[in-house]
């Protein structure tokens, strides 16, 4: 099969490798679509350093079951499926509490977090445990379905962790693809005023089309002052979905009494300061969200199947796997949203 293999930072190339065999309780999936996440890009470019080589990146896939291993039920050859990249044992204490993303025996296919990182889906085939598979609804395209995992992450962060309520005024800092999913979920959850903040006018134009009531570019205006004009009493919820530490600092500057804020986008180890006394008296609440779990995946599937969240407009570029270098170039461009690979 053809796969994009990362041998070292900035050294990724297409190679022909053997098609893997599924073991007991596993399935081999022929990948039809895989989202190109900023986390993948950071690993390739060496911005994210917790990488073991060689690595086949790609952790947002959808495809068709091509083969199943022994003792597999619920899935059969030909089933159209979505893969949750975070695998779990289902038996440890955390799994039995429903916290499968804290699994003591976790693995990931192409992502990051656990020590056990398995080949991902920038490839024609991927092997994974069947408890990470979800049946793809017929009404959802493969390109939309592969976005289920990041949409589930947005739902988990905004609704499950930060407990967004109908009518909340929400600020989303960073409207790359994950910020777009946060915006879509917040809109579906009944956000009142929904402010998108980004340094890319291209991204902000897409955010307006997807339902942002206001957009702000920190390069051309004072973001904090502009948000204060729109929300004199401050936001109810701030989602940091950008990544740079400056976005986190902007989020902290927006705090008022009772503000909830979610450190969602930053994945590198950087520091910022908090005034402990101020945090105490404001009763501001910090949350964070990493990865996904079966509850979030099911919620994301429902949002898409019911037509409440449509990720198709987030896609800006599509490439066959054979044009991987073009996809990599698109990821570096400020004029892109979601990049999809179609192996």
Secondary structure layout:
Elements: E1 2-8, E2 11-16, E3 26-36, H1 38-45, E4 61-68, E5 80-83, E6 86-87, H2 93-96, E7 107-109, E8 116-118, E9 125-129, E10 133-135, H3 142-145, H4 148-161, E11 170-173, H5 177-188, E12 194-197, H6 201-209, E13 214-216, H7 223-230, E14 237-240, H8 245-253, E15 260-263, H9 276-282, E16 285-288, H10 294-305, E17 315-320, H11 324-331, E18 338-342
What would you say this structure looks like, in words?
By secondary structure, this protein is α/β, with parallel strands linked by helices. It has 2 domains: about 1-145 and about 310-340, Alpha-Beta Complex (Quinone Oxidoreductase, Chain A, domain 1), CATH 3.90.180.10; about 150-290, NAD(P)-binding Rossmann-like Domain (Rossmann fold, 3-Layer(aba) Sandwich). It has 11 helices and 18 strands. The protein has helices at about 40-45, 95, 140-145, 150-160, 175-190, 200-210, 225-230, 245-255, 275-280, 295-305, 325-330, and strands at about 1-10, 10-15, 25-35, 60-70, 80-85, 85, 105-110, 115-120, 125-130, 135, 170-175, 195, 215, 235-240, 260-265, 285-290, 315-320, 340. Strands 3, 4, 5, 9, 10, 17 and 18 form a 7-stranded mixed beta sheet that branches. Strands 13-12-11-14-15-16 form a 6-stranded parallel beta sheet, sandwiched between helices. A 3-stranded mixed beta sheet has the order 6-7-8, with no helix packed on it. α5 (about 175-190) links the parallel β11 (about 170-175) and β12 (about 195). α4 (about 150-160) crosses α5 and α4 crosses α10. The model has no long low-confidence stretch (mean pLDDT about 95).
